[in-house]
């Protein structure tokens, strides 16, 4: 089921493009514009004749995006999400900073909204994230001196959050960004100081597995493409967790990269992560133009490099054994929604422009999956 807007676009009898993709016909664009105009939303248009398949129709694995609950109230964006992807990750509303209240209570209104939208559209949901050094909620800060109380509250939180979505969330980033960027190995955090450098992670995996035995449990990190030393530390952490008996099922590479990343780095990271035989996720991909400081190129050159990096990731991920391809998730669909816009408003890191129109990176990503 798609929204009326989606139906207008997808069921307008538009001719198939030579590649068999959906051609955004003038009638379809007009119907969608009228439908959107009726509900006061921005026109969802694309240049006529632009051939584009839904991302999930081309991939032989789940394709996802991060979302915020309020974004789903925009019919045009909801239609784009419903048409393009098969999995949703709450961008921040399933983290402690949203769920855990100052008094120790929990709120789930936003992740529930996302889970309901996903269920209504036959999509999977991925849980992000349980243990992250960057989250230091006051409630746990206050317990730091009482080991038993801290442990009990930590256990209660992980059990409650994972248990609430049992059977509805297919996997979790149990531990996020545990490896330091400077070769210093594992980060210290509120969690590691209270529960132990390895134990805080092993406990979290055990609790998550007990709360939802069917959920795939992941270790997630960033800069694994641009920093081979960090990637090696990351893989050593994964091995240590496995050796400690943690129910670790998969590895996620966030893949927040810049357009000046050397060709081949993304593919090398994906191959290395697959080397342990666990499931693999591209968990948060975007390709920053603004962060491409190594290049003094035209915008067109940067966009060509961006498209090539998306294609490289697609090709390398598709080359993995099917059993290891858990999902390929973009950290947003439309440029206007990217977290990177906070750094540089001119950045355009995603696959669709601010009006939801597919950029050249879409065709490149899809062509790579057809190779
Ligand atoms: O929506 C509220 C707004 O109502 C409120 O006025 C405002 C000020 O408090 O906060 C807004 O929420 C912010 C939210 O982003 C939506 O913009 C949160 O404070 C802010 O913490 C949150 O930032 C998220 C960040 O993780 C921290 O959770 C970003 O959206 C999200 O893109 C970013 O994602 C991370 C991954 O989890 C891990 N990998 C890196 C990635 C990028 O940093």
Short characterization:
This protein is α/β, with parallel strands linked by helices.
State the main characteristics.
single chain; 371 residues; TIM Barrel; 14 helices; 11 strands; globular; disordered N terminus; binds ligand G3I
Give the SSE layout.
Blueprint: H1 4-10, E1 22-23, H2 26-38, E2 51-52, H3 55-58, E3 63-67, H4 75-84, E4 87-90, H5 96-99, H6 109-120, E5 124-132, H7 138-141, H8 147-164, E6 169-176, H9 190-195, H10 199-211, E7 216-221, H11 228-243, E8 250-253, E9 256-258, H12 265-274, E10 279-288, H13 299-318, E11 325-330, H14 360-369
Parallel strand pairs: 3-4, 3-11, 4-5, 5-6, 6-7, 7-8, 8-10, 9-10, 10-11
Antiparallel strand pairs: 1-2
Bound molecules: ligand G3I.
Describe the structure.
With 371 residues, this protein is α/β, with parallel strands linked by helices. The protein has two domains: 1-52, no CATH class; 53-370, Glycosidases (TIM Barrel, Alpha-Beta Barrel). 40% of the residues lie in helices and 16% in strands. The protein has helices at residues 4-10, 26-38, 55-58, 75-84, 96-99, 109-120, 138-141, 147-164, 190-195, 199-211, 228-243, 265-274, 299-318, 360-369; strands at residues 22-23, 51-52, 63-67, 87-90, 124-132, 169-176, 216-221, 250-253, 256-258, 279-288, 325-330. Strand 10, helix 13 and strand 11 (325-330) form a beta-alpha-beta unit. Helix 1 packs antiparallel against helix 2, helix 1 (4-10) crosses helix 4 and helix 13 packs parallel to helix 14 (360-369). The longest helix has 20 residues, at 299-318. The chain starts with a helix and ends with a helix. The chain binds ligand G3I.
């Amino acid at each position: 089921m798609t929204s009326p807007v989606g139906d207008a676009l997808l069921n307008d009898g538009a001719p198939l493009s030579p590649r068999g993709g959906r051609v955004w016909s003038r009638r379809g664009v007009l119907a969608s514009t009228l439908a959107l105009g009726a509900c006061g939303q921005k026109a969802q248009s694309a240049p006529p004749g632009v051939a584009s398949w839904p991302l999930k129709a081309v991939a032989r694995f789940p394709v996802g995006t991060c979302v915020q609950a309020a974004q789903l109230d925009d019919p045009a964006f909801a239609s784009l999400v419903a048409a393009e992807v098969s999995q949703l990750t709450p961008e921040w509303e399933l983290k402690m900073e949203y769920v855990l209240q100052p008094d120790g209570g929990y709120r789930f209104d936003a992740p529930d909204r996302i889970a309901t939208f996903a269920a209504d559209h036959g999509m999977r949901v991925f849980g992000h994230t349980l243990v992250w050094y960057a989250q230091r909620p006051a409630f746990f800060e206050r317990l730091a001196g009482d080991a038993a109380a801290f442990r009990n509250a930590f256990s209660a939180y992980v059990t409650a959050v994972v248990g609430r979505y049992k059977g509805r969330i297919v996997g979790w980033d149990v531990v996020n960004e545990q490896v330091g960027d400077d070769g210093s190995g594992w980060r210290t955090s509120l969690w590691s100081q209270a529960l132990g450098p390895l134990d805080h992670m092993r406990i979290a995996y055990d609790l998550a597995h007990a709360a939802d035995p069917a959920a795939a449990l992941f270790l997630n990190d960033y800069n694994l493409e641009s920093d081979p030393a960090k990637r090696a530390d990351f893989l050593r952490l994964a091995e240590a967790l496995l050796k400690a008996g943690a129910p670790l099922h998969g590895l996620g590479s966030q893949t927040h990269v810049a357009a000046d990343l050397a060709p081949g780095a993304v593919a090398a990271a994906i191959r290395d992560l697959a080397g342990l035989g666990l499931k693999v996720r591209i968990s948060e991909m975007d390709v920053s133009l603004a962060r491409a400081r190594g290049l003094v190129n035209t915008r067109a050159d940067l966009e060509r490099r961006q498209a090539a990096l998306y294609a490289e990731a697609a090709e390398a991920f598709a080359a993995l054994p099917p059993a290891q391809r858990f999902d390929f998730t973009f950290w947003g669909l439309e440029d206007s929604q990217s977290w990177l816009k906070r750094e540089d408003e001119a950045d355009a890191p995603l696959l669709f422009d601010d009006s939801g129109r597919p950029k050249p990176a879409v065709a490149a990503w899809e062509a790579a999956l057809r190779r």
